[in-house]
């Protein structure tokens, strides 16, 4: 039977289950990716698992998020991460070497392999024909330990591309068009596979932009074929020997279909404060701005910086506009400099920052209140920039550069100039010196973990009780993101390896008093959170599960969940339940006391229906879970780590 690319990749790595949408499957994992904002917790989990050495073919730890050394805490994290890499056999990418996703694509990405990453934008590697899935850190830790990844088999959504992008329209506009059509939850429990003649017109880095932001649609992952464009990319990186052709069979079918004629697209922009709040740039042209930033894993290629440099060459950016450039890897920064583009940018007034995520994760570059910030980033959730009352717009490098020149939001087609023709180098400036290879196993065994005062141990969580009677401490609406649950930014990020300290930031963007109120429940009954649709969208950070758990959260009842956060809740022993009748969401108030009984028996049954009694209102609601047996066992044990501790010896 003809297969599409996604089916081929899954079939090649399938270790359990069948490829029936909705059924749990186990996937063998070849590579793992961690970054410092989530990786410190992964390394603590490896310590808790008593791992001897990684069992994946390639495991890489990147330092790309916590790069501002305001005090000693980030430096402590980096020292801890480096020691953990040496202890457990991981590659270590030093601070400033580059953002994990494009750097991994340059140095380690191999068509046909599978990868999990503790970053929701890990699917960017699908641009090379990889099966790359973003998950919580604990799922990465167990993959490093040699365990399969267990997920529900997604539907495969075939998006056929035809035509060719017109002048001034680029890959960012393709994914913004997808968001405009389908919203931030349009691809939940789906793999997006791009195919058709239009794919041939996109470079590997163009595809990276599109695959990266499939996470904003809620997709399990995104895949492209591995074809001549991938071969050219690997040749540029000096790794053509790693090329493997992977294309869909003739007659391959898809569970869901869509089509985009690239030639009909126009410059698009996502208005504050959601990635799917997309309009044509001309609809908002003339809106003043105070900042324009180019960079991040959502626009990481040399071409994305070079086009901006060519646009501003010989010109000066508008007064009052901060034009910021965040190179995404040292390699790209070097090539940009060799081209003379760095001089063009600096001469035009650009501020050049180190290679890293920077403002994308709220680590510096926070905008002023009341001033619009245009960014080529993947997300514009409220407050993610580091400014609580921000106004962040998402756009292409062309739109960002045009707007920086004019001082107002500007469609690049209206600059009155022709789109520059770029001559990019055929050979990249490959310099692996900031990648530290793991030591040999015998040396690794003697490495001690370096733990500063800010490195805590993982909390111990008790098993799920048979009866929960607890208050609804917080009721939230639709599309609550993990940024709102566990904020990013320069204030919170340095505590990523210190769960008790990080817990003080939990939900503070929604309710500043939540940590104090929650702490009062932690030693007793615990508490419940009620959520709307797509609860927990966005980042894969498992801190959004572990810090509320530390503060006493025992159960979340929502209309629906985002995939990664739903899994993270189960991994840390929090019971995720969905309303059988979504209208019941409106029938529960904050501070109501909810009661669920006989949990241990009910959770022994697949897809069980449970009754939640509202003691405050004297009414009941039917709820359900969709947890697999493996997840139910973890919830009952108090989390995945206690479950593994019950059932296995140290991982060698």
Automatic annotation (TrEMBL):
It comes from the Bacteria. It holds the Pfam family Aconitase_C. The keyword Metal-binding applies. Residues 524-581 form the Aconitase A/isopropylmalate dehydratase small subunit swivel domain. Residues 8-284, 286-407 form the Aconitase/3-isopropylmalate dehydratase large subunit alpha/beta/alpha domain. GO terms for biological process: tricarboxylic acid cycle. Keywords: Iron, Iron-sulfur, Lyase, Metal-binding. This is Aconitate hydratase. It comes from Prauserella isguenensis. The lineage of its organism: Bacteria, Bacillati, Actinomycetota, Actinomycetes, Pseudonocardiales.
